[in-house]
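Example for tutorial group B:
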């Protein structure tokens, strides 16, 4: 069985910074899934009422060409195209019943929709 080396870059918190609430929730989710060394993949995809939206998944680690950022004791991976849109962002988490969940504060977003799930840059 041949294993191929994954080629990725190391980024820093200038790309994306994970705040305390998001860090605690991510560590808990990764532990529950049995992959404490895993990471959160943050991607920007077309869609939503403002044109772009975030997609987040728990993954085992970076894929080829990804940028990996270690922030607040968790790993976040971002593909190069999405990195253009999320640069300078902060990721937080809230338990609020109506507006809870992971939230991205993105300085590149010039417009947001009222649902808070999509943006334009």
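The residue assignment follows.
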């Amino acid at each position: 069985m041949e294993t191929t080396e994954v080629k990725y870059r190391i980024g820093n918190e200038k790309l994306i910074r994970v705040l305390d609430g998001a860090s605690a929730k991510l560590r808990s989710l990764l532990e529950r899934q049995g992959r404490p060394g895993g990471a959160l993949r943050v991607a920007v995809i077309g869609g939503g009422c403002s044109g772009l939206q975030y997609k987040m998944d728990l993954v085992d680690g970076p894929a080829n060409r990804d940028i990996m950022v270690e922030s607040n004791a968790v790993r976040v991976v971002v593909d190069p195209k999405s990195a253009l849109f999320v640069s300078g962002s902060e990721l937080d988490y809230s338990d609020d019943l109506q507006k809870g969940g992971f939230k991205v504060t993105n300085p590149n977003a010039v417009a947001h929709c009222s649902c808070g799930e999509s943006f334009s840059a």
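The mean pLDDT is 88. Compare this with the pattern of hydrophobic and polar residues in the output above.
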